[in-house]
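re: ur question from earlier - yeah i can do the single chain one, its not a big deal. heres the input i used so u can compare w yours
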Amino acid sequence: ELRTAYAPHLRSNDVTVTVVNSSFAVFVTGAVIRPGRITPERTITALDAVMEAGGFDHTKANLRKVTIIRTVHGRVQRTILDLKAVLDGRDATPFYLQPHDVVYVPERLIWF
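and the output i got, formated as C-alpha coordinates:
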Protein backbone atom coordinates (compact mmCIF):
# COMPACT_ATOMS: atom_id res chain seq x y z
CA GLU A 1 0.00 0.00 0.00
CA LEU A 2 2.84 2.39 0.80
CA ARG A 3 4.62 1.59 -2.48
CA THR A 4 1.43 2.30 -4.40
CA ALA A 5 0.65 5.49 -2.54
CA TYR A 6 4.18 6.88 -2.85
CA ALA A 7 5.12 5.38 -6.24
CA PRO A 8 5.50 8.76 -7.97
CA HIS A 9 8.02 9.81 -5.28
CA LEU A 10 10.09 6.60 -5.01
CA ARG A 11 13.29 5.83 -6.88
CA SER A 12 13.16 2.12 -5.95
CA ASN A 13 10.47 -0.29 -4.78
CA ASP A 14 12.08 -0.73 -1.34
CA VAL A 15 10.10 0.82 1.48
CA THR A 16 11.28 0.62 5.10
CA VAL A 17 9.00 1.48 8.01
CA THR A 18 10.56 2.44 11.34
CA VAL A 19 8.54 2.91 14.51
CA VAL A 20 9.71 6.19 16.01
CA ASN A 21 7.45 6.39 19.01
CA SER A 22 6.33 3.54 21.22
CA SER A 23 5.92 3.25 24.95
CA PHE A 24 7.26 0.40 27.03
CA ALA A 25 7.68 -0.40 30.72
CA VAL A 26 10.93 0.07 32.64
CA PHE A 27 11.24 -0.41 36.39
CA VAL A 28 13.38 1.77 38.65
CA THR A 29 14.03 0.70 42.22
CA GLY A 30 16.41 1.24 45.11
CA ALA A 31 17.73 4.58 46.32
CA VAL A 32 15.61 6.84 44.10
CA ILE A 33 12.94 9.33 45.11
CA ARG A 34 9.95 7.60 43.44
CA PRO A 35 10.71 3.93 42.74
CA GLY A 36 8.34 2.10 40.44
CA ARG A 37 7.32 1.58 36.85
CA ILE A 38 7.84 4.24 34.21
CA THR A 39 6.50 4.10 30.67
CA PRO A 40 8.64 6.25 28.42
CA GLU A 41 7.42 7.01 24.90
CA ARG A 42 10.94 7.17 23.49
CA THR A 43 14.19 5.35 23.90
CA ILE A 44 15.81 6.41 27.16
CA THR A 45 19.06 5.86 28.98
CA ALA A 46 19.54 4.49 32.48
CA LEU A 47 20.22 8.03 33.73
CA ASP A 48 17.01 9.28 32.06
CA ALA A 49 15.04 6.56 33.86
CA VAL A 50 16.50 7.53 37.24
CA MET A 51 15.59 11.16 36.58
CA GLU A 52 12.02 10.10 35.63
CA ALA A 53 11.88 8.36 39.03
CA GLY A 54 12.59 11.67 40.77
CA GLY A 55 16.37 11.37 40.77
CA PHE A 56 18.78 9.76 43.19
CA ASP A 57 18.23 9.78 46.93
CA HIS A 58 21.60 11.46 47.55
CA THR A 59 21.56 10.54 51.24
CA LYS A 60 21.72 6.82 50.35
CA ALA A 61 22.43 6.20 46.64
CA ASN A 62 25.58 4.52 45.37
CA LEU A 63 25.82 6.13 41.93
CA ARG A 64 28.94 4.11 41.04
CA LYS A 65 27.19 0.71 41.07
CA VAL A 66 23.83 1.23 39.37
CA THR A 67 22.73 -2.16 38.08
CA ILE A 68 20.68 -2.83 34.97
CA ILE A 69 18.89 -6.18 35.11
CA ARG A 70 17.80 -7.48 31.70
CA THR A 71 16.42 -10.84 30.58
CA VAL A 72 17.71 -12.00 27.20
CA HIS A 73 16.57 -15.34 25.79
CA GLY A 74 15.44 -16.48 29.25
CA ARG A 75 18.74 -15.60 30.94
CA VAL A 76 19.23 -12.73 33.37
CA GLN A 77 22.04 -10.31 32.54
CA ARG A 78 23.40 -7.70 34.92
CA THR A 79 25.30 -4.63 33.81
CA ILE A 80 26.94 -2.33 36.35
CA LEU A 81 27.06 1.37 35.45
CA ASP A 82 29.00 4.21 37.05
CA LEU A 83 26.47 7.02 36.73
CA LYS A 84 28.63 9.26 38.95
CA ALA A 85 31.17 9.28 36.10
CA VAL A 86 28.39 10.22 33.69
CA LEU A 87 27.17 13.05 35.92
CA ASP A 88 30.77 14.27 36.40
CA GLY A 89 31.30 14.33 32.62
CA ARG A 90 33.96 11.59 32.68
CA ASP A 91 31.83 9.06 30.75
CA ALA A 92 29.59 10.04 27.86
CA THR A 93 28.60 6.52 26.80
CA PRO A 94 24.81 6.26 27.05
CA PHE A 95 23.29 2.94 28.16
CA TYR A 96 19.95 2.62 26.42
CA LEU A 97 17.21 0.66 28.14
CA GLN A 98 15.00 -2.00 26.61
CA PRO A 99 11.44 -2.98 27.53
CA HIS A 100 11.13 -4.53 31.00
CA ASP A 101 14.67 -3.60 32.11
CA VAL A 102 15.09 -3.00 35.82
CA VAL A 103 17.30 -0.13 36.96
CA TYR A 104 18.49 -0.77 40.52
CA VAL A 105 20.24 1.99 42.45
CA PRO A 106 21.88 0.35 45.48
CA GLU A 107 22.47 2.06 48.78
CA ARG A 108 26.04 2.92 49.63
CA LEU A 109 27.66 1.60 52.75
CA ILE A 110 27.85 4.18 55.49
CA TRP A 111 30.41 3.65 58.24
CA PHE A 112 29.75 5.21 61.62
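Residues 46-52 form the longest helix (7 residues). not sure if urs matches, ping me
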